Amino acid sequence: MSVRFAEIVMACVMAAFSVYLMWKSAELNIGWIEDEGPGGGAWPFWLSAVMLLSCAGIAWNWWRRSTPLARSTEPFIGSAALRIVLQVVVLLTVVVALFDVIGTYCALFLFMLVYLAVIGSHRLPVALAWAVTTPVVTFLFFEILIKVILPKGVTEPLFYPIFRFFGMGGI
Amino acid sequence: MKVRMIASLVGLAGAVMAPFAAHAWEPAKPVEFVIMAGKGGGADKAVRFIQSIIAKENLGPTVLPVNKPGGSGAEALLYLKGKEGDNHTLMFTLNSFYTTPLRQPGLEVDIETFTPVMRMAEDTFCLWVNTGRKDGEDINTFEDFVAAAKAAGDKWIMAGTGKASEDNLITDFLNTTFGLDMKYVPYKGGGAVAKALAGNNADSTVNNPSEAQGFFVAGTVRPLACMTPERIGLFADAPTMKELGQDFVYFMQRTVVGAPGMSAEAATYYQDLFTDVFHSSDWQEYRKKRALVGDPLTGDDLMEYWKREREIHRGMLDKLAGK
Amino acid sequence: MVEILALLADGFGIALQPLNLILIVLGCSVGLFIGAMPGLGSVNGVAILLPLTFVVPPASAIIFLAALYYGAMYGGAISSIMLGIPGASTAVATTFDGRPLALQGLADKALITAATASFVGGTISVILFTLAAPPLAHVALVFGPPETLALMLLAFATFVGLGGDDIWKTIFSICIGLVLAAVGTDIVSGEPRLQLFGLTGFFSNINFLVLAIGIYGIGEMLWTIEQTAKAGGASMLSRATVSVRRVLAHLRDQLTLWKATLMGSLLGYFVGILPAAGATPGSMMAYGVAKQLSANPDSFGKGNPEGVSAPEAANNAASTGSMLPMLTLGIPGSPTTAILLGGMVIWGLEPGPQLFVDEKAFVWGLIASLYAANLFALLLNLTFIPAFIAVLRLPFTILAPVIFVLCLVGGYAPTNRMFDVWLILVFGFVGYLLRKLDYPLAPAVLAIVLGPMTEPALRQSLLMSGGDLAIFFTRPYSGPIMVVAIALLALPLIRRLVRRFRTG
């Protein structure tokens, strides 16, 4: 996929999104109400219309090949870079999905371990050290110091004794 | 020596834990306290105040306020609904507790499923005007207000906190009852409303006493009437609506609600906890200074109160929509 | 005047008591770390620690929170510079030049510039506060919706020319930011609005932080990962170094920035006073003005230290400024002061016009402690710079996952919503693709910050006037601001026309 091709694909996707936003805004009044000014949907509707217009402008530039991106035939992303970026994207998505299942802390442990050992090619002891330290420090800073409770999923009962130890719950 | 030290340590630990020990059920982790409004508003301030009372008097476990202001409380209601059977989630509510489910039936929120914990207070409302109006007119009584607002027609600006909010319902009542055509301009929160009046960017407001109090003390704004059964001590000159010939009182609840399906033991625990908070000297002082009224209500009495209030609000919303 | 100085001296007497000094040190340190977390800013810090302050007397409690506030403001710059992620909306403008400086191996210079500019901004604002509090409070009071709209327009106007080379992409970016800011509830009708794809998560507004962490955290990291993969694994950040000689040289360089710093301080203070505005528009306008006044405007956005000093001076000056409406009117000028107001209730103080009269010790103790906190935050910041630089020198394959963790957890913390974490990922992935196609994203972030103040101001004004646009021009404050804003907006257009006329 060349940069030139990516440029027009993105413009089309964003144009479609603009149309969706316009349609969604139109659920409210998008006109001018006598004695009151613009209706509730007017602000997002007309701004989305300008978004659509800009997409048309981008497409026009693409057609005339008047910007460097619209002329570029270089690949949008190299295959080596694509591999690593995709790895990170998938890993991030899986980890966030795991937050509610096995809990933030276990998910962060896995994330650090996989990232360091697989993507970063660090030795296992190094990866393990970071994988253990990160959730522990996160827990102490967020839950104990500034009292922000993160999702724990099925691991929640394991934390009851810790909360008790820090005087944050029950006996 | 050593033995005595250990003994005293045990004693100390016992003393620290004593408030917990009397209950059949206790929280095992910090309790989430959802606020139906944003940071810095009246409900938010009250929750953070309650949180500090619980910590200060060592009444219970750690309580963590979480703001969920989205969709006039819809976000908070849905969140609590999704916490069915949870013993560690409470919510601090206002009157959007009734109005939001009524206005958005699509939410499928039935407030009768929620666990009643404790009504901590009812907030009151008064009608306010600026003492130094831009047009130089001096509005001293409710009659002056009606005359001036009538003359101004839809040029008269009433600032409030948003469609179908408490002050909007009262504005609607004033408009229909006295034949006015005031224009309602929404602001973000009661503090901003009070400031709009003080800066002469609005002609009148229906603020809680606590929101307008600072400007009242400074002599910038003046209460003309209060929506209470009896006059409020702090504003003894302002008549009630009843004295003005209208049988109209309106309150805003400040109530603690538990998640639906909370266990009976947990509900009892929280009812006891908030009874203690209610009777703490700090809360009593706060009620007095903010001109809050309303006795503590709990359990079935609170549920009955909700049902009654919901019907009242249903009527008011129908009237608002029918206009 | 003499009376005020005496009151301020008393205030310092309170601020310098041993207990209060300890609290200042503690507050600054905790604040620095909270502020340096992407996602967490002074609002969260103050909100979280507020209920714990009952153990000390009210004056000490607010001193602690003021120190925390200042610490977090300094910390916000650290996250902007080192990670490229603004930790709070007040630090957005700092990323524009702070980040490029860090990428050039000059992170230490950016950090020092931010710290000293913050200190100067804080100092100037405390002096202004001392001299002219009550009359300015009056301006803040009459400042209504039309004035707010004029001010917002001015903020946008100072930013003309911030975007990239492709004008269409810049316009697109501004508009999408403004539309995303409209998600949630329509304030006038109270109806749900733009509940995208029927998701209940869109019941509430999209927090600015979600977009900022997505774009600058996830998106920018993906971009950096791609660039490092291309360059064979070398990260540009790890070139950062620090030494005493460098620090001294950077400190000396600060003198050349005096114009931007002074302008930022003054602008920040006056904008900060206006209720509903707070430090964010102040810092953004300072950046825009610094760029337009600079001898070398093209170097902005590419690592010009003036682009760090102006917004940093402004946001610190504004945070002092926003204390003014809070104390005198009981009206918060920023979300953080809204929480502080709640704190005053807990401590049994009644904010409002009477506070300056009835609680002199409290007010001036607070002002003096702001000043002491400012000084301490500077020292703390300078001491920690080597530690921050050491973090940057970590191998990129370790630094990157740590930053991702900070983004995900920091994105959850302000709202406690998993939905926001998912949004961060989506904005991050899309932002990365847009970045590759040269869409400028800073305008979108600015727009989502200013949007929620702009639209309500417009609609409230028009409700007030019955739909008559003249309201923006006939009022004593909004009229002149509006004219200046429109002139600034039109200026580049006129310039272009003139140029075309001359060449054609």
Q: Could you characterize what this model shows?
A:
The complex is a heterotrimer of chains A (171), B (323) and C (504). The N and C termini of chain A lie far apart (62 Å). The mean pLDDT of chain A is 91. Chain A is built from seven helices and two strands; from the N terminus they run αββαααααα. A two-stranded antiparallel sheet of chain A has the order 1-2. With 171 residues, chain A is mainly α. Chain A has two domains: 3-71, no CATH class; 79-165, no CATH class. The longest helix of chain A is centred in the middle third of the chain and has 24 residues, at 79-102. With 323 residues, chain B is of the alpha/beta class. Helix content of chain B is 44%, strand content 17%. Chain B has helices spanning 2-21, 42-56, 74-81, 96-103, 142-152, 166-178, 190-198, 209-217, 264-279, 281-289, 299-322; strands at residues 31-35, 63-67, 89-93, 115-123, 126-130, 157-160, 183-186, 204-207, 221-226, 252-258. In chain B, the strands form two sheets. A five-stranded mixed sheet of chain B has the order 2-1-3-10-4. In chain B, strands 7-6-8-5-9 form a five-stranded mixed sheet. In chain B, helix 2 (42-56) links the parallel strand 1 (31-35) and strand 2 (63-67). Mean pLDDT of chain B is 87; it is low at 1-21. Chain C is mainly alpha-helical and 504 residues long. Chain C has one domain. Helix content of chain C is 73%, strand content 1%. Chain C is built from 23 helices and two strands. In chain C, strands 1-2 form a two-stranded antiparallel ribbon. The longest helix of chain C has 33 residues, at 360-392. The chains are: A mainly alpha (171), B alpha/beta (323), C mainly alpha (504). At the A-C interface, helix 1, strand 1, strand 2, helix 2 and helix 4 of A face helix 2, helix 3, helix 9, helix 10 and helix 19 of C.
